Amino acid sequence: MSYYYEDEISLVDLWLVLVKRKRIIAVVLAACTIIGLVIALLVPKQYNFNTSIEIGSRVIKENVQPIESPETLLAKIQESYIPLVQHNYLKQQADGDSMYSMTARVPKGSLLIVLESRGAEKYGEIYKALQQNVVDEVKNDHQRILGIIRKELEIVRNEAVNKLEELKDGHNLLLTREKRLDEVTVLLKHQIEGAKKDLLNADRSRQRAIQEATNAEKAMTLLMLDNDVHKQRERIANLEERLIIEVAGGQDEISKSLADNIRAQQNQQDKISRIEVQLLNLVETRSLVPPMQSNRPTGLGKKVILLLAIVLGFVLAIFSSFFLEFLEKVKQRQQDDQQSIKSVTTAQSTTSHKAA
Questions:
Q1: Is 333 helix (H, G, I), strand (E, B) or coil?
Q2: In order along the chain (356 residues), what is the average pLDDT of each group of 10 residues?
Q3: Are 77 and 134 in contact (CB under 8 A)?
Q4: pTM over 0.70
Q5: pLDDT of 210-242, one tens digit each?
Q6: Do 123 and 99 contact (CB within 8 A), yes or no?
Q7: DSSP letters along 164-213, please?
Q8: Strand pairing partners for 23?
Q9: Strand pairing of 112-120 and 103-105?
Q10: Cβ contacts of residue 151 below 8 Å, gap of 6+?
C-alpha cells in the first residue's frame, strides 16, 4: 500500500526546482566566482615573520636554571613589551596598528619565546624592526638581572679568595712554628748532651772524693758533689721531658693543623672554582636568529580562494533557488486562498438571493 502526501518532497521535485532556477544558479555562481577571482588577485600574499628568544640561564648545583621563568617572561612580553613597542612606533608613524600585530608563545618544554607576525611582504621591514625592538627590551631587562647575579657571585668569590689567603697565611705561620720547634729540639738536645757531660764530670769528681774522703772537710766536699750530681740528673730529666712531651706534642699538633689547613685550602679552592664556573656559565638572553621572513607565503593561496568562492557560490545558488521557490509557493498559496474566499463569498451571496 502506498501513500501520497501533498507536501511530500522527492528528489525529482528538487531536481525540477534546480532546473527551473538554473538562471539564478548561474548568476549567483558567476557572481561569487568573479568576486573570488577579484579577491584572489587583489589580496597580497601573506608571509610569516618570526624570531626566537633564548632565555638567559645560570648553573646552580650542576642544574641549568633560567634567570626568569618562560611563563613570567611571556606575560611581560604580551602585556608590556609588545604594547610598548607598538605605542612607540605609532608615535613616530601615522599608520594604523592593525597590520602590525605581533604574538608571542612558549614552545612546550623549552626555554624559548617565539615572536610571530603575519603580513604582506612590503611590510616585512616594519615587522622585523618591531620584533627586534621587543628582543632588545627583553635583553636590556635580563642584562640588569644578570648584572645583579654576577655582582653577587663576584662578592662571594672575593670573600672565598680572602678566606683562602687567610688559610695560606695560617699555613705559613704553622710552618714557622714548626721550624721554631725544630730549633728548640736541636737546642734541647744540645743542652741534654751538655748536661750529660756535666753529670759525667760530676760523677767522676764524686768517685774521687769518695776515695779521698778521710776528714770532715773532704766529706763536706763529697756531699756537695752528691748534690751537684743530683741537680744534673734532674736537669737532664727536665730537658728530656720537654723534648718528649712539650716539643713532640707541639710537633704533632702542628702537623695536624697543617693537614687541616691544607684540606681547608683545597675546599676553599674548590669553592672558588665552583663560583668561577657559575660566572663562566652565565648565559645572556639572546635571539637565536634575527627576525626572518618565511620562504613561502602562508594562509590561503589564490587557487584555494577561487575554489572556496566557487563552492560558496554553488551553495548560495542552491539556497537562493530553493528560497525563491519557497517564496513563489507562498505567493501561490496566498492567491489560492484569496480565490477560495471569493468563491465562498459568491456562493453565499447567490444562496441568500434565492432564499429571498
A1: helix
A2: 50 69 78 78 79 90 87 93 89 63 89 89 88 94 92 93 92 83 74 73 67 58 64 72 69 83 92 90 90 77 73 80 76 76 70 60
A3: yes
A4: no
A5: 666 555 555 566 566 666 666 767 777 777 667
A6: yes
A7: HHHHHHHHHHHHHHHHHHHHHHHHHHHHHHHHHHHHHHHHHHHHHHHHH-
A8: none
A9: antiparallel
A10: none
C-alpha cell at 236: 737532664
Annotated domain spans of the chain: 18-44+301-322, 161-280
Do 78 and 88 form a contact (C-beta atoms < 8 A)? no
What does the block give as the cell for 168?
695560606
Residue in the block written with cell 589564490: 302
Q: What secondary structure does DSSP assign to 273-319, as a single string?
A: HHHHHHHHT-BPPEESS--EE-SS-BS--HHHHHHHHHHHHHHHHHH
pLDDT for res 31:
84
Q: What is the pLDDT of residue 348?
A: 66
Task: Report the alpha-carbon angle 171-177-181, nearest 5.
Answer: 140
pLDDT of residue 5: 45
Give the residue among 66, 77, 63 at the shortest CA–CA distance from 113.
77
- The answer to whether 45 and 120 have CB atoms below 8 angstroms apart is yes
- Strands, E assignment, the chain: 46-54, 57-60, 63-66, 103-105, 112-120, 286-287, 292-293
Identify the pLDDT of residue 2: 44
CB neighbourhood size of 323 (10 A)? 13
User: CATH assignment of 161-280?
Assistant: 1.10.287.620
**Residue that has been written with the C-alpha cell 647575579 in this structure:** 149
- Contact residues for 175 (Cβ-Cβ < 8 A; gap 6+): 258
State which amino acid sits at residue 63.
N
Helix (H, G, I), strand (E, B) or coil at 66: strand
